[in-house]
Inverse folding.
């Protein structure tokens, strides 16, 4: 199946960038999209039958913690890439909070060198905003851009100093690359481990109020507006946050935003039994927040779905809720969870979901990906929308098993994935010596 | 009659009215054991109780220790200095090791909410929560119910006022669940910064002023003010706290004459209670301490019975529960 010509036949092709949603064929030649049309004839082409399946551009995840270099016990480039492929992602943006921090061109180059050996998916590096994520000194963003950075983020930590954030946003006028903001006012989140609300009161757990997020979103929007800078808000979790972004967009601020599958499907009540699989930052919020996030995604106020994939070892997560680290894995469950809970039950149109994982994240970064126009790199994901499956940590490709969705019965699964025209997943199995 | 079927006692929130009464009746029966010259029954002979107090505690630990000894259990003490439970080695690993040593009951005190629940899910041994973070302190809640019942003869319809740091108090939460389930009207009172979000939805009234609810109260439970709350800026100063919420003779002038005054201990004298009030005629603080042993004996006994699954534990007739008698000689719980 490694022919230079491949015809994907009879699938429902959804390519939001071109406004396409129809049953048609997709021809791939020399790793690129060669044509789209009904009953395409292609001599000497290998054929892949996609009847009953959905064919989309490969998914783009703006927010992944690959943990490499430095924390390979949590995840490696290989295990993270395999998890991505399982979830239909062909492009990952790797967060900068590695060890060492990706605050220099050298560290970004290590990431690229490592990925050149693995080569399963495209990995785009995100550079740190400040040296060592300390929030004090700006990184050499110009050089990081040259080394391939697609954006800048201290994610995991907010840039607490407003003056530093202002300078970073001013700098984006030169690079054009977004500052990706982890919006958390630490003096409000304090020692909190979950959303501050009725459930936290019942459980006797320290809360993280919604305002820990919204105060910082408001600050960063105002700073971006004044600086004429380019701002992207990571993992929005609150209704009031959505409202701030909606208002900012309406008055022309250059701001975009993302939301995670878990914030779109779970509430703080999930922590009722002190299970650290539901501990992440920002925390799961209320049902009203969840509804506002879904509405924001539908409306386009929230541009992209991003997983904030944050693998941890089992031993780390087995700590008590206070001691366990924040974060959940998400690459392998994102599309199944969102097809089941978001589309089938949550009223999110399928085309909106696909756009928020393809064309819309590409637009956030200003990169030429996430579409199947003629000549584009053939990153393709094929889904069986009817395939039922149960989330089971034993089947994860990721090293992290800290999923909030373990045991969930889902409908909709990735069957095949092509990266630059090469089939890397076929009928749910890795191809070319990638067999697990 | 209700039978005890739970492997663990993790909190009062999940207990039914009948289960609460079962424990209180059992405690009433055990109360006599401590009054004998030989303060021992063989109810838990041959069983082992591990006391894992991973946060400093003298009162609750000694109370559990005496309760277990008076039931003839063997005791394993695990304290922070001799344990890797607090940091490093995971809580669950240590709990599994204790379980592997065939310990029937594990009593856990931990500074983080939810640790006893986590451990209870992971091991077959019974787990008794001796206080976890700001979550629950179920045996203290039961002690308070028992003491109120002894003093007032009933719980239903009483006005109970809980004063202090509700936000961080596991005692306040256990009190709230137990008291509301048995029909008391609960008001929580303290500075707005120490009242948790949404506490009203659990059936408590909230007051930021002491005077009005104090006038109506039959029972006042004062909570200990942890001194670190001042450093954490929850309150401007302990001086202001005492002025507004500290209970003294002057403030008690506005209270009912038969009000009883309770405190889970240890008291910060001169902060939440003035010394003359703490030792005064309305204070039942030492009776709470005394009752603690009978209540903890009841909990250990009932949980052990559910664990072994035997209906014929070797308990002599003296410990079989009689219904709770009020001072008026009739049971008026209902």
């Amino acid at each position: 199946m490694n022919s230079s010509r491949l015809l994907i036949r009879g699938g429902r092709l959804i390519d939001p960038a071109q406004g396409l949603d129809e049953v048609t064929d997709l021809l791939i030649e020399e790793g690129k999209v060669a044509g789209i049309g009904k009953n395409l004839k292609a001599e000497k082409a290998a054929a892949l039958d996609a009847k009953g399946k959905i064919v989309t551009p490969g998914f783009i995840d703006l927010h992944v913690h690959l943990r490499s270099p430095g924390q390979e016990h949590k995840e490696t480039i290989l295990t993270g890439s395999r998890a991505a492929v399982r979830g239909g992602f062909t492009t990952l943006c790797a967060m900068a909070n590695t060890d060492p921090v990706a605050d220099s061109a050298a560290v970004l180059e290590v990431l690229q060198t490592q990925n050149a050996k693995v080569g399963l998916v495209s990995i785009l590096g995100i550079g740190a905003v400040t040296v060592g994520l300390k929030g004090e000194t700006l990184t050499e963003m110009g050089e990081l851009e040259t080394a391939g950075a697609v954006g800048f983020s201290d994610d995991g930590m907010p840039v607490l100093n407003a003056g530093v954030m202002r300078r970073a946003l001013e700098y984006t006028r030169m690079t054009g690359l977004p500052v990706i903001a982890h919006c958390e006012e630490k003096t409000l989140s304090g020692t909190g481990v979950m959303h501050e609300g009725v459930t936290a009161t019942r459980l006797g757990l320290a809360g993280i109020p919604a305002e820990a997020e919204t105060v910082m979103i408001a600050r960063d929007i105002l700073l971006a507006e004044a600086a004429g800078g380019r701002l992207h808000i990571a993992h929005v979790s609150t209704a009031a946050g959505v409202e701030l972004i909606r208002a900012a967009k309406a008055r022309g601020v250059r701001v975009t935003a993302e939301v995670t599958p878990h914030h779109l499907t779970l509430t703080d009540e999930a922590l009722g039994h002190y299970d650290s699989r539901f501990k992440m930052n920002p925390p799961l919020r209320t049902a009203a927040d969840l509804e506002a996030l879904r509405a924001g995604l539908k409306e386009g106020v929230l541009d992209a779905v991003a997983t904030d994939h944050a693998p941890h070892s089992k031993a780390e997560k087995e700590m008590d809720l206070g001691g366990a680290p924040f974060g959940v894995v998400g690459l392998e469950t994102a599309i199944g969870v969102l097809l089941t809970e978001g589309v089938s039950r949550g009223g999110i149109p399928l085309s909106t979901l696909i756009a928020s994982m393809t064309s819309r994240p590409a637009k956030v970064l200003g990169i030429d990906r996430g579409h199947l126009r003629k000549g584009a790199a053939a990153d393709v994901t094929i889904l069986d929308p009817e395939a039922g499956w149960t989330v089971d940590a034993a089947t994860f490709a990721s090293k992290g098993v800290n999923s909030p969705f373990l045991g969930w019965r889902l409908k909709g699964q990735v069957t095949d994935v092509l990266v630059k025209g090469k089939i890397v997943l076929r009928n749910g199995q890795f191809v070319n010596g990638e067999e697990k | 009659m209700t039978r005890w079927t739970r492997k663990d006692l993790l909190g009062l929130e999940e207990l039914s009215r009948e289960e609460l009464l079962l424990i209180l009746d059992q405690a009433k029966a055990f109360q006599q054991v401590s009054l004998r010259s030989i303060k021992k029954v063989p109810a838990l002979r041959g069983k082992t109780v591990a006391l894992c107090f991973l946060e400093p505690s003298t009162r609750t630990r000694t109370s559990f220790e005496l309760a277990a000894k008076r039931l003839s259990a063997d005791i394993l003490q695990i304290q922070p200095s001799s344990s890797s439970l607090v940091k490093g080695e995971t809580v669950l690993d240590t709990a599994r090791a204790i379980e592997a040593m065939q310990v029937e009951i594990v009593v856990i005190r931990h500074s983080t909410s939810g640790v006893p629940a986590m451990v209870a899910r992971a091991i077959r041994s019974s787990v008794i929560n001796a206080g976890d973070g700001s979550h629950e302190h179920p045996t203290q809640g039961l002690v308070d119910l028992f003491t109120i019942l002894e003093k007032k003869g009933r719980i239903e319809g009483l006005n109970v006022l809980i004063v202090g740091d509700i936000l961080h108090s596991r005692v306040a939460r256990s009190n709230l669940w137990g008291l509301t389930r048995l029909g008391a009207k609960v008001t929580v009172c303290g500075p707005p910064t120490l009242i948790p979000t949404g506490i009203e939805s659990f059936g408590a009234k909230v007051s930021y002023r002491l005077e009005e609810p104090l006038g109506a109260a039959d029972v006042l439970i004062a909570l200990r003010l942890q001194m670190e709350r001042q450093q954490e800026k929850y309150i401007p100063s302990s001086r202001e706290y005492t002025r507004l919420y500290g209970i003294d003779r002057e403030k008690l002038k506005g209270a009912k004459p038969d009000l009883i005054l309770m405190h889970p201990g240890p008291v910060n004298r001169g902060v939440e209670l003035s010394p003359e009030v703490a030792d005064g005629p309305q204070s039942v603080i030492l009776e709470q301490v005394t009752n603690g042993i009978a209540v903890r004996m009841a909990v250990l006994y009932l949980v052990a019975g559910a664990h072994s699954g035997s209906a014929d534990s070797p308990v002599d007739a003296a410990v079989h529960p009689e219904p709770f008698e009020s001072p008026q000689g009739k049971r008026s719980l209902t």
Remarks:
- The first helix of chain B runs from residue 17 to 31.
- Confidence is low (pLDDT under 50) at residues 309-318, 325-334 of chain B.
